[in-house]
Design brief:
The protein is built from 11 helices and 9 strands. The protein is α/β, with parallel strands linked by helices. The chain has 2 domains: 2-153, 3-Layer(aba) Sandwich (Alpha/beta knot); 173-243, Trp Operon Repressor, Chain A, CATH 1.10.1270.20. Strands 2-1-6-5-7 form a 5-stranded parallel β-sheet, sandwiched between helices. The structure holds adenine (ADE).
C-alpha cells in the first residue's frame, strides 16, 4: 500500500508515523508514505497558500491552485482511479469497516485541510471520499489522516507480526476486547482471576468470550446488536441485563 498525504505539515505526518508498528512497516517497505508539502506549490514569492473568504467572515481559506498542483505532482505516480480522501468533520464517520474497505486499495491520497477549510472547487475537482474521525473539530486534517493510515496499515498483510495479528480484536466481531492481565498475580490487593492461572484453555476461552460480551454490554451496548451470539450467549446477555 502506498499512501500520499497532501499537507501543509509533512513532518507532522512522516515523523508521527515513524515509530512502533507502522514505523517498522515503513522501514521494511511493506507500506510506503509520501507527504507532499502543499506550500511547495504556492506559486508566489511569499509562499502563501491561503486567502480571505469571498463573502467575508472569519479565518482564511486554503486556495485551490496550490492544492490542485500538489495533487497534479502525483499524477505520474498514481493510477487513474486512485481514491483521494479529504479529511473533514463533514465526512463519513471512520470505522473498522471503512479501514477494511480502504485496505484493499493499492494506493490512497489523503488531503489535509487547515484554516477554515479548502476552496470548494478543488474539493469538487479531485476528492472522491470524505472521512471524519469523529464529531469534533481538529486544527487540521493531519491527525485524522494519521489515524486512517494507522488503522488501514495494520490490516495490510505483513504489517503486524504473527503474534500481533493473532490478537483477537475489538470490533472485528462487534465485541470489545476482554480484559488482559500480566504479572504480578496480585496488584494493590487485586488478584488476577483464578481461571487465567489455571491453564485450562477451554475455560479461559469461555471466560474471555463472556467478559467480552459483558464489557460490550456495559460500555457499548449498541455494538451487541451486530454481534453474532450463540443461543447460550443470548441467555447470558439477558441475565447480565438484569444484573446491571
Ligand atoms: N479535520 C478537522 N477535524 C476533523 C475530523 N474530526 N475528522 C477528519 N478531519 C478533520
Amino acid at each position: 500500500m502506498r499512501f500520499y498525504v497532501l499537507t501543509l505539515f509533512p513532518e507532522m505526518v512522516t515523523e508521527g508515523l515513524a515509530h512502533s508498528v507502522i514505523g517498522r512497516a515503513l522501514k521494511e517497505g511493506i507500506i510506503e508514505l509520501t507527504a507532499v508539502n502543499i506550500r511547495d506549490f504556492a506559486g508566489n514569492k511569499h509562499n502563501s497558500v491561503d486567502d480571505y473568504p469571498y463573502g467575508g467572515g472569519a479565518g482564511m481559506v486554503m486556495q485551490a491552485p496550490p492544492v490542485y498542483n500538489a495533487y497534479l505532482s502525483l499524477k505520474d505516480k498514481i493510477s487513474d482511479g486512485c481514491r483521494v480522501v479529504y479529511m473533514t468533520p463533514q465526512g463519513r464517520p471512520f470505522k473498522q469497516s471503512i479501514a477494511e474497505e480502504l485496505a484493499s486499495e493499492d494506493e490512497l491520497v489523503l488531503l489535509c485541510g487547515h484554516y477554515e477549510g479548502i476552496d470548494e472547487r478543488v474539493i469538487e475537482e479531485i476528492v472522491t471520499d470524505e472521512i471524519s474521525v469523529g464529531d469534533y473539530v481538529l486544527t487540521g486534517g493531519e491527525l485524522a489522516a494519521m489515524t486512517v493510515i494507522d488503522a488501514v496499515s495494520r490490516l495490510i498483510p505483513g504489517v503486524l507480526n504473527k503474534e500481533e495479528s493473532h490478537i483477537e480484536e475489538s470490533f472485528s466481531d462487534s465485541l470489545l476486547e476482554y480484559p488482559q492481565y500480566t504479572r504480578p498475580p496480585e496488584f494493590m490487593g487485586r488478584r488476577v482471576p483464578d481461571v487465567l492461572l489455571g491453564g485450562n484453555h477451554g475455560l479461559v476461552d469461555k471466560w474471555r468470550r463472556e467478559k467480552a460480551i459483558e464489557r460490550t454490554l456495559k460500555k457499548r451496548p449498541e455494538l451487541l446488536e451486530k454481534a453474532s451470539l450463540t443461543e447460550d450467549e443470548r441467555i447470558l446477555v439477558k441475565r447480565l441485563k438484569k444484573e446491571i
